[in-house]
Amino acid sequence: MARYFHIITYGCQMNVFDSLRIADALRTRLNIQETTELEQADVVIINTCSVREKPEEKVYATLTRVLKYKRRRPHMVIGVAGCVPRHAGRAIMDRFDFVDFVMGPDHVSEVASIVSRAMNHERVIATSQARRGQYVFPAFARDFRPGPTAFLTIIKGCNKTCSYCIVPFTRGPEQSKSPRMVMDEVKALVNAGAIELTLLGQNVNSYGHDLDEDVDFVNLLEAVASVKGLKRLRFVTSHPVDANDELLRAFSRIPNLMPYLHLPLQAGSDRVLRAMKRGYTLDDYLRKVDVLRSASPQVALATDMIVGFPGETAEDFDKTLSAVRRIEFDQMFSFKYSPRPHSAAARKPDDVKPGEKARRLQALQELHEEIQSRRMASLQDSVQEVLVEGLSRRGRQNGVGQVFGRTPANWVVNVDAEDPDDLVGKIVRVKVTQVMRHSLKGRIIDRPEGMQAAT
Ligand code: SAH
Ligand code: SF4
Ligand code: F3S
Fold it and tell me: Which run of H or of E encompasses 383?
């Protein structure tokens, strides 16, 4: 009888990548098939994130939900993977006796054996950290078929010590994938149909420093960009300290490197940046933005921001607002500071009151929205090359479907199409007809070769 697994993924794209490799292993090594229906699953894996309290809370709520299904299917094997087990694995096993295994991020390549042990009624705890240099990157299944856009982790872990952050604890020290392995995987993904690739790492631009070979991130970008058939290349996330001028100028040199840079600033006050141990001042950051924008003004700049870090005064926060006003980010992901275990800042009093954190977050988001809508307004009537990623959720209306895709600068565009299925995976020229709050609407003006023009 066929058996099924179901994976629920939270957190960053590295977790998404790991979930795909977990799926590969279960399919090809244990012959279990993926299902989108939780109630049909024999194995359920929750791939978790502990970067802030809120995503971690989701794990516990999800476990309670999964338990309902387990009551109906008592043989169901339930596992918790990802970052949360690194610091709470044992506690999860104690508190939720129906959980069969917990595994940390360094054990993804062993998932098939962990799951088969759990299916044989063993409760498995695999939360240790790989020794320096000993992490095994999980492999792709030979028959893995990416969509038009694919992710590829090229460096795991983080060697920075940002004082608020749990990631160095959960993901361990940095380890770069060998350039040969990266290139083999890139070629395989492109041969299997990917036309856009996003290289991943918590701190992707520190790639290579731990390798014997003389290769850095920019060398690797150039090599990957030159792979035949790869139309678009992206990468996340970059740490400002490791984003050197050569990288910032790469956007003007590498034609298929898409004009989008995620370069988290976190705060606008030097005092707070120092307390966060970010390793740069606002001026250092502004200089990088200048280098970037004078070489390639078209690059969209994205940031992450934290409000209410311990000791952040109203004056510090004003500096964040004025930095944002000055830089004008295209995209921002902003968060209330949340104390995390195994982070240095957790030892300081979390002294910005919840109401004040909420007020600062709202003020920051309102300012950003205003800037973003002004920047997005300039896209009205522009012509954009859009890589169509899939069908919009809206479905067909009056016989017309809708597809969505992204512009080079990473804006989401929805486009009406009579032949939506045929467009997926194609790059089409689109005229922007409407600028929405966080996305665009457009009309196809030019189709790829071999497809009929719209009538
Ligand atoms: N490696 C990336 C981001 C990692 S986590 C970088 O260095 O920028 C993603 C974002 O979560 C961070 O950029 C930060 O803005 C936010 N974050 C991390 N820890 C946090 C905490 N304890 N409280 C609130 N936000 C946090
Ligand atoms: Fe966390 Fe800083 Fe590393 Fe990013 S660079 S993962 S914020 S410690
Ligand atoms: Fe979350 Fe772990 Fe990624 S804590 S952000 S899933 S590295």
Answer: strand 383-391
- What CA–CA distances, in Å, run from 385 to 95, 253, 382, 397, 429? 51, 19, 10, 25, 5
Q: Whole-model pTM above 0.90?
A: yes
HSE at residue 404, side-chain half, CA atoms within 13 A, is 11
The alpha carbon of residue 131 and the mean position of all alpha carbons in its chain are separated, in whole angstroms, by 25
Ligand 3 site, CB within 6 A: 11-12, 14-15, 49-51, 82-83, 167, 170-171
262 CA to centre of ligand 2 in angstroms? 13
Q: pLDDT tens track of the chain, all 455 residues?
A: 789 999 999 999 999 999 999 999 999 999 999 999 999 999 999 999 999 999 899 999 999 999 999 999 999 999 999 999 999 999 999 999 999 999 999 999 999 999 999 999 999 999 999 999 999 999 999 999 999 999 999 999 999 999 999 999 999 999 999 999 999 999 999 999 999 999 999 999 999 999 999 999 999 999 999 999 999 999 999 999 999 999 999 999 999 999 999 999 999 999 999 999 999 999 999 999 999 999 999 999 999 999 999 999 999 999 999 999 999 999 999 999 999 999 999 999 999 999 999 999 999 999 999 999 999 999 999 999 999 999 987 777 777 889 999 999 999 999 998 888 899 999 999 999 999 999 999 999 987 655 654 43
